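Hello,

I think I submitted the flavin-adenine dinucleotide job twice by accident. Can you confirm which output corresponds to this input? Input:
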Amino acid sequence: MEKIIVIGAGQAGASCVAKLRAEGYEGAITLIGDEPVPPYQRPPLSKAYLLGEMALDRLFLRPEAWYAENGIELRLGAPVDAIDAGAKTVTVGRDVLPYDALVLATGSTPRRLPAKIGGDLAGVHVVRTLADVDAMEPEVTQGRRALIVGGGYIGLEAAAVARKRGMDVTLIEAAPRILGRVAAPETADYFRALHTAHGVRILEGVGLECLNGADGRVVGAILQNGEEHPYDMVIAGIGIVVNDGPAQMAGVTLDNGIATDIHGQTSDPNIWAAGDCASLPFRGTRIRLESVQNAIDQAEAVAKNILGAGQDYVPKPWFWSDQYDVKLQIAGLNTGYDRVAVRDGGAARSHWYYADDILLAVDAMNDPRGYMIGKRLIEAGKSPAPDVVANLEADLKALLK
Ligand code: FAD
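Support: Only one job matched these inputs. Its output is below.
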């Protein structure tokens, strides 16, 4: 193994190259990214960074000099032009770079509102990159009116920041309720109440008919419930699509993302995938995880497996979200739940997801203890009875024994 190329200089790409060096790999490493900046963390983009509470230099995962110091060639602002999987080369501009192993860590791109309903007007934003947030930040100002389209975590976090910065905020969700794809009604109820208490107008079951523009800039919107309002800016948080362009160039199998096996290897044994773009086997099906922890863990497993470890990657899903003064921590994956037990400790609250009395996941709101114990129970394969976790008299820690 003399040459490894990683495409995608984000969370997974950066974790993969660091792990390759940490494991003692001494061959050439090239990390190729189409953004103009070194790898950075995305979660603060819709939280502390947009709020103006986190400096730019704290976003970067490592100082740029670290890559050169560790013999990692960083090619930034460089979208990949071609991949020849037979010849094992990647073309970037005029350079044809050979590889022995290729890692696809290309992440995802936010869905945009269609241009035919005004999605291409100035003042309509998405939240994925530093450039996206730097472009929207000057518009997130006191007294202006924001329409947030989409009631998932990105939309809700953006709504919280916009409110904290003194905007008048309306959030619309076309599905019957917010967080419909990712959380139980109990968690949606909690966050709806939180946002409403902070003055956000949340409309559920209401889609966007179209945006109104003047001189190429958004000035308002018509909602599918017939309401028409002026808005100064719009933020769309309506999901993502996998960046599978390089995977298509390489001709590897796609299946709701870049299909990998349990080791992170694609249908081409010389090509691996990790992070948001990878779909991996899990509990008899395939999943794609959009979280930092998965990007790091999967990329590190891929690095080891390229070097011959043969290690299975078993995700231990973990996610968080900050909204106002609430920290939500999620352990596990709730897919397929049939029951939710609520542990209502007032300020500290947790929602425990079960399927056939097996504990799958926990949403913990300002409840780090509930989160930590839930996570350990899930990892240990232990499932306390739902009635027990709902009982505040029950000592959760004792359940770990
Ligand atoms: P990315 O970090 O997106 O990196 C992929 C990189 O590949 C990008 O730089 C992309 O431009 C580049 N690329 C794509 N195609 C090419 C190409 N053809 N050539 C060259 N480069 C290419 N997760 C959490 O766990 N907790 C949170 O609170 C949380 N909050 C989030 C908030 C926001 C606003 C966003 C956007 C995401 C959040 N996430 C959160 C998700 C988390 O950030 C992602 O899961 C994680 O960044 C995935 O890492 P990745 O390396 O797979 O993709």
